[in-house]
Amino acid sequence: MTIDEKDFFREATLRICGSLDIEKALQQCFLYIRAFIPTRQIGFHVYHREAGVIETIALAPPEPSGVCPMKTQLTADGRQQVVDQRSHRVRVVERLGDDPVTSSIAQKFGASDFSGIVMDLVLEKKMLGVFSIFNDGREPFTQCHIDLLSLLSKPCAIALTNVIRYRELKSLKDLLTDDNRYFQDELRRIAGENVIGADQGLNEVMEMVRRVSPMESPVLLLGETGTGKEVIANTIHNLSLRSDGPFIRVNCGAIPATLIDSELFGYEEGAFTGAVSEKRGRIERAHGGTLFLDEIGELTPEAQIRLLRVIQEKEFDRVGGTQTIRVNIRIIAATHRDLEKMMTENQFRADLFFRLRVFPITIPPLRDRRKDIPDLVQHFIQRKSKEMKRLLVPSPAPGVLERLSNYHWPGNIRELENAVERSLILDRGDNLHFKEINEKQSRNDSPLQPESITAMPLDAVMAKHIQHVLNQCQGRVEGANGAASILDIHPSTLRKRMTKLKIPFGKKSGLS
Length: 512
Prior knowledge:
Helix content is about 40%, strand content about 15%. The protein contains 20 helices and 15 strands.
């Protein structure tokens, strides 16, 4: 039979390189080349030189026992022959059982009496593996068969390389998935599956959380700064059907207005000066999970319009992009601001407000859940002691918990956490005294008591509260123990508000 080598090369190459499923590709190649070469089985093998092991990647037709991939340890003679035969890239083995290299493999398949052609696969001077053809030995291999098979050296090498790299990528993907699952579990462990106060001060809140978590509805968390809105958002995510997906947090008040679009929606290469490559935004990274928009009231009007499209259509465009990207995300938003008032003043879009306010949850301030304070104090002592690597975990001094419960906590849970950390730094003994929380700062002296603010304008109440927190922080605005941290607001935003309310700060305040 006359064989057109070009046709043979083209058709065999299309089959061997036609799929990343190497078993499927081998099967298609086997069905084609057996019409030209007496073939009972073909296979791909990789040699691990340091271990002296041949790994059979795939066979066609496949073995009924499904043994692939299978590793075979070579004898010392077999390993030496691999080194010696490098000058013979294609060779015929009259009887597989008599060859030091093929005998171990043939024995596993019950093919010791078979004949074979073994072709080394070399790409860019690198030995990748072997392509083999076996038959039952009744029809001998000829030089024509060897020449035909030699035509497939490069296609087979490329196919094997693609398969090896594909499996490596798949293995890395599985590893990353496993790592991601592990880190998500660690984050849940650190955050705590059980919300402190769930059975006391946050009982009603947690009941609402349990009801809404399995749904896909947007959730709007309302409450003063520092009340733990992020903890509640994280709990909703952990209890939802998206718990295996990402939980992406965005503090809308901490991102400058000029950067909010690129941070949320990402950008394409060349979209603006400095955009040297494309970047995925927070929304895109939250695909398959939950997007938590903290301080949603700080969003710019332009970003509000684009966010509305994401909520309604589940799609958006990157900055400078023309391709529409679809996402599957759940939105949880949070704010300490009065969005309804902002809506009437045209500072917040009404359509966005009603899209977000499907299921509002108001989180009470710490002064309204005083029974939770002892548990919270103990929780923060345990956690901060571990972070500070203190061998002995201290306890609150006698009478301290009562004093802490009588304090009005304008900074809520965040202020309590900071107070615990300060006491751990200042008190190195077995007891924590919380000296900065003195008896004069009882609930009766709170600037937020209803009877003291009912006749006061809102700006006056806000100014009094900011001034009170500033006095606690000794005039410090920024930093871990600054007023901005306690009030959960960006320092620049706090300074603007203080300027508007005519509250002196810096050198003008007279505080050091």
